[in-house]
Amino acid sequence: MVGIKLCPNNNQPKIIDAEKAFILMHQTSLRCRLLVNYDFDEDNGIIRDKSTGERCFIVYKKGMESIFKALSQVFSSGIELLLWESSRAAGKNMLHSIGKESREQIKPLLNAYTKRFAQVGFGRIEVCEFEPEKARVRLRVWNNPFAEMRHEKSTYCSYVAGLVSGLYEGVFHTTPMVKETKCIGNGDPYCEFLLTRKVP
Fold it and tell me: How far apart, in Å, do the first and last CA atoms of the chain sit?
């Protein structure tokens, strides 16, 4: 069996994906669809990403929320930095799952990254502004599951900010300034991130 097939009739995933430390968020409102490039060994309980060979697993949104809340209790305000740094590393690793041909050019790289972002269940990412000569990128993230989870008065969008920071570093070979200009958690229809070159 290959891919992920989710059916609204029984809301049970037939085949599921996550890459390395990435987590696929499955919500019961998803429509039936099939994603390719994943193998599920039901007898041995192993899921593998065919493009990377990495073992995968799934954590539901509610389970992820519990993990983040527990981490928030332990690390208090440090949770933001913890999520940022771990997801920034994961964002860089995500680039390695994209074919070398795509990594050599920026446009195909962004297209492959946005596809991969959706495949791991983090929502749909859209590049709405891209100025390579200024190292300026504006990204929109629709259906961001991290914006739907809250701790105190904020969301866990720092996870996505870290992921896109890792992408930026892979493209421009420098650490960006990242500003979230819109957020689903604040009632906006999408989350939006502006990434620019960090001024020394």
Answer: 50
> How far is residue 126 from each of residues 33, 57, 68, 130, 156, measured CA to CA in Å?
20, 26, 26, 11, 19
CA distances from 185 to 44, 68, 72, 154, 167 (A): 39, 16, 18, 8, 23
Class of domain 61-197: alpha beta
Query: Domain extents for the chain?
Result: 2-56, 61-197
Identify which of 37, 30, 170, 152 has the alpha carbon closest to the alpha carbon of residue 95.
170
Please report which confidence band the pLDDT of residue 1 belongs to, taking 50, 70 and 90 as the band edges.
Answer: very low
Q: Does residue 177 register a pLDDT over 50? A: yes
Q: Is 65 within 8 Å of 151 (Cβ atoms)?
A: no
Question: What pTM was computed for the model?
Answer: 0.70
Question: Can you tell me the distance from the alpha carbon of 178 to that of 18, in angstroms, rounded to the nearest whole number?
Answer: 25
SS3 content of the chain, % helix, strand, coil (to 5): 40, 30, 35
